[in-house]
Amino acid sequence: MIFNKDTAEKTAELLLQINAIKLNPENSFTWASGWKSPIYCDNRLILSFPSIRNYVRDEFAKNIEKQFGKPDVIAGVATGAIGIGMLVAESMGLPFVYVRPEPKKHGRQNQVEGFLQKGQNVVVVEDLISTGNSSLLAVEALRAAGANIKGMAAIFTYGFDVAEENFKKAKLDLYTLSNYQNLLNLAVAKSYITEKEEKTLREWSVTPSTWGQVETK
């Protein structure tokens, strides 16, 4: 669910302007999962553009407090959301922790890095939601450390049904600055893509795990 429509449209336009989101229906990308995709999203680029990262920071800070109340701690999911998560925590005057994909293999073997007390209210900041699996593993680690997770806030989501199901199972509310639907609407309105390309992009979102695969007999 998006925080609000105006923010969703503005965020989508900014991400397109800096090529944090690339739309290429003719020559698909291959994700780490092996999925073929006409879209690639790299929100780490936001950190290189001061005015845009400040906009994302301020929208997160304002809407997190409005939607979840002011938490005790902001947590970022490594590695993509460490930078923006820390900026949000700084803006809100809150402590910050981040969550590794898995515990370190040496030292204290931490998965949650930073000072976190049991029972503290935490909002998790993420950069991108696809299936939601990696994001929810971070939530599990925080819950195992005793945190009370108020919700998750992400920059962008593809809006896959599987992600919605995963968050429902985890009993966790997800809000985003923008999403795939608003991105496509904006891309058409601003002539970033043609009607034919829009059709391809919408078809992909229905069956993303099998889109673009060559059938073999």
From TrEMBL:
Coiled-coil zones: none
Molecular-function annotations in GO: orotate phosphoribosyltransferase activity
Residues of the Phosphoribosyltransferase domain: 59-156
The reaction(s) this protein catalyses: orotidine 5'-phosphate + diphosphate = orotate + 5-phospho-alpha-D-ribose 1-diphosphate
UniProt KW keywords: Glycosyltransferase, Magnesium, Pyrimidine biosynthesis, Transferase
Cofactors, names only: Mg(2+)
Residues engaged in binding orotate: 130
Record flagged with keyword Protein transport: no
Known function: Catalyzes the transfer of a ribosyl phosphate group from 5-phosphoribose 1-diphosphate to orotate, leading to the formation of orotidine monophosphate (OMP).
Protein name in UniProt: Orotate phosphoribosyltransferase
Gene coding for it: pyrE
